[in-house]
Give the backbone structure.
Amino acid sequence: MSEPSEHPIFARVYDSLIAGSEKAGLAEMRRSLLAGARGKTLELGAGTGHNLPHYTDAVTELVLAEPDPHMAARLRERLTAEHPAAASAEVISAPAEDLPFDDGSFDTVVSTLVFCTVSDPERAIVEARRVLVEGGRLLFLEHVRADSPRLAWWQDRLERPWGWFAGACHPNRPTDQTLADAGMWIEQLDRELFPKAPRIVRPMIKGVAVRPGGRR
């Protein structure tokens, strides 16, 4: 498997780029989603730590996986400064497609604005399912491929230049379908709009997917 890409410039400007969206409603989406995190929790692609203020003390252990060293450096700074409500928290360097944990290690996995950037979203979701306990929940907030054929066409057309600008982000991934194809049970899925964002990344999904019991 190839090494994770590094995006030092994007890591440096990311907080400024997303600040308007956070104030316009993205932070509230995070808060409502993460109210459902429980027990031992793994966050995939934790970035610079925008989810940290929204974890509650229902999280007994928080593991923040971030493969980009430039993002991870800022994440560690924020973790030191903000002290989330979780009983314990640590940052590890690990890509979502290759998690260094045993099967059934976590009660909750969190993914916010992650599956658009991973190199292999199908494998990343299979890995998330693997490390969840039976009945464990994946909490997701992701921008996705548009239902509108016209907007989806623009997402396809602008995929490459957008990715160059936005840290390898793919605006046209059908993450909702990928979750179902990976064998996750979709317990809740709400259609949202990414606040104060370019139109090609505005379609969003927010919800909960469950790892079913029995064989994977």
The helical segments are 8-34, 69-82, 121-131, 149-157, 159-165, 175-181. Strands lie at 39-44, 59-65, 89-92, 106-112, 132-143, 185-193, 203-210. The longest strand covers residues 132-143.
